[in-house]
Structure formats: C-alpha cells, structure tokens
Design a protein that fits this description.
The chain is α/β, with parallel strands linked by helices. The protein is built from 12 helices and 7 strands. Helix 2 packs across helix 3 (about 90-105) and helix 4 packs antiparallel against helix 8.
C-alpha cells in the first residue's frame, strides 16, 4: 500500500469518499466539496482522494492493480477513524469503488457509481489502453490524452458547446498527470475483472449516475450496474457526457444528496 493518500476534505457528516476519473485528480470534486457538506438531512464529511500517482499521492513501485487502490482506501478509512463510508467514484474511480465493494464490503454504508461500467475490458479496449500507456511513456508526455479525448469523448456535445472553458479546465488537470502514472493506471484498468456478479452482494443503498450523452460508458452500462445492485437508484442526466460531476454539478449533487438521505 502507498504510505499516505493525498485527500481534500470538508464537512463533518456521513463519510463520503470520492474517487476521481482517469486521468484527473481530486480537483475534479471541488463542487462536491463546496456544496455537499451542510445539506439539511444529508450532511456529509466529503473526502476527495488522489489515487496513487495522481494529485499529491506518490505512485510507488507496485505492479498495476485496482485492488491495490481499493486497499489504499481501506487504509485511509483506518487512519481517518472511519468504520464505514459511502464510497463513490466516476469512471476509473467507479472501477476502484467496485473493487472496494468486493474486497472491503463490510466497510460500505453506501455506494455511488457514476459514468462507469461493471464489465471487464474487451480485447480491443485492452489493446488501446496498452497503446496509450506505451505512447505516453515513449514520448514522456500525456498530451495525446488531451488531443484524443477532449472535448469528446470525455465531455458531452451539449457541454462542449455550452461551456468551452470546462474543456480548458479538464485539459489542465490531464496535463498535471505524470506519464508513468497514466501508464500504470491504464494497465491496472485493463486487468480489472468483471464486477457485475460481485455487486449483487453489495446490499447497501446505491446510486448509479450517468450522462445521457456519455459515449464511453453509456446509459446501457449504467442500467446493467443498477440491475446488479440490490438497492440501486438509477439517474440519467440529460445533456451530459462522461464527466457528469463537472458538467452538471448541481444535478449531480442533488442526486448524491438523495443517496446520503438513504444512509442509516
């Protein structure tokens, strides 16, 4: 496990751990840190985590594995004195949240899965991840991620038209990422297993969120996740792409408040 995760924290209510998308950082959760604490009936202690290699967290020397990231979160909860938490993630963060549910299910009080999927990568997807990993290492640059993923497919068409400054903001976060961390994360995601069967054992309040314009993990993937989870609500956000927490933070936060209100 990594020695210590970098965390942005706000609030003092129900513990809510937020795990960022690839290849961003905990900075993507600023609107959630600002707005979720203090909500009447659904106050939250929000912990926005930098997964290893991103933001302020060291990558370390371990082989790529999402299970390691899930174990990092368990250690974070121990150090924070938190027994059980709502664990949520977007895209790659959702993969880590599912790994956490599989490995540390007794630590969950709720589960939030946004713009992610429960199935393993296809052979084509794994090959593309390896292409990106090899390219960023060879070039010692992550610029190709900006060139290939912005505004689409990371941002929805509606968002790209309505808020061009968000494209610049996301690009700035991507360019803060180290090539070695990007390659490590790509290879960890490529190796992840199918999670749909294990999610049937996650019998806690759950929320599955997806942008209606998400082409990377479309609403059909969200529907499969919601069908697997025993206590899931499904919310499809119109006019929204893959980075829903950034594209429509007010609607995203309203849905999360609904989940927090369901936590015992």
């Amino acid at each position: 496990m990594t020695e210590r995760l970098s965390v942005r924290e706000a609030g003092s209510g129900t513990p809510l751990v937020l795990l960022h998308a690839f290849p961003l950082s905990s900075r993507m959760w600023q609107a959630q840190l600002d707005e979720l604490p203090g909500a009447e009936g659904a106050d939250a202690r929000v912990l926005a985590v930098d997964l290893r290699g991103f933001g302020g967290t060291e990558l370390g020397a371990d082989e790529p594995s999402l299970d390691l990231l899930a174990d990092d979160i368990a250690l974070l909860l121990d150090r924070a004195g938190i027994d059980r938490a709502v664990v949520g993630g977007l895209s790659m963060g959702g993969y880590v949240a599912m790994a956490f549910a599989r490995r540390h299910g007794d630590r969950l009080s709720g589960l939030l899965l946004a713009d992610t999927k429960g199935t393993a990568d296809t052979d084509t997807a794994r090959a593309n991840r390896e292409r990106v990993a090899a390219a960023v290492l060879a070039r010692d640059s992550v610029r190709l991620l900006v060139d290939e993923q912005l505004p689409a497919p990371l941002l929805g068409a509606t968002t790209a038209t309505r808020d061009p400054k968000l494209t610049e903001h996301v690009a700035s976060m991507i360019l803060e990422s180290a090539p070695a961390s990007v390659a490590w994360a790509q290879r960890a995601m490529a190796a992840r297993p199918d999670s749909l069967a294990s999610l049937r054992g996650a019998d806690v309040p759950a929320l599955v969120l997806v942008g209606a314009e998400d082409t990377l993990t479309p609403p059909s993937d969200a529907e499969a996740l919601a069908a697997a989870l025993p206590q899931a609500d499904l919310t499809i956000l119109p006019g929204t792409g893959h980075l829903s927490a950034l594209e429509v933070p007010e609607a995203f936060n309203a849905a999360v408040r609904g989940l927090l209100a369901r936590i015992d």
